[in-house]
Design brief:
The protein is an all-alpha fold. The chain has one domain. It contains six helices and no strands. The longest helix has 23 residues. It is globular, with a radius of gyration of 15 Å. It starts with a helix and ends in a 7-residue tail after the last helix. The relative contact order is 0.20.
């Protein structure tokens, strides 16, 4: 579906900018402002946290006309899922007051490298926009 293609590009770029903002904040101060704005409005933050993995899963399931099943949009779908999961883990670790070992382990794995996940999502979104019919992209 063309709508999912458009949503995956927009959400990959938007989620990538949000997650990569701490890494690029010195060069591009506006990115930290975008991140702070999204994180300050709970409904917007929750919406992005839900939409990223949801659209990623839908991209894995749906097939665009003339595309290879599952493999056709693998990289953008995986980066959407990873970006969404990173935001969810970050939110849960901030709000959690208990000593949950699983959450701490996920925090070490995902939130520590959120800038890498953000850059990967950003690159996947831009490449998916430029080369729409390339396999795996």
């Amino acid at each position: 579906m063309v709508q999912l293609y458009f949503l995956s590009i927009c959400l990959n770029i938007f989620g990538g900018l949000i997650l990569a903002a701490p890494h690029f904040s010195e060069r591009f101060p506006a990115l930290s402002g975008i991140r702070e704005y999204v994180y300050s409005i709970n409904i917007l933050k929750y919406g992005v946290m839900v939409l990223l993995p949801l659209i990623g899963i839908m991209k894995l399931i749906s097939v665009y006309t003339g595309d290879v099943v599952v493999v056709g949009d693998l990289l953008p779908a995986l980066t959407l899922i990873a970006a969404g999961f990173t935001m969810i883990v970050e939110h849960l670790s901030e709000k959690s007051e208990s000593e949950n070992r699983f959450l701490k382990k996920m925090d070490k794995i995902f939130v520590r490298y959120e800038s890498i996940t953000g850059v990967a999502a950003l690159v996947a979104g831009v490449l998916h926009f430029i080369f729409p019919s390339v396999l795996f992209l």
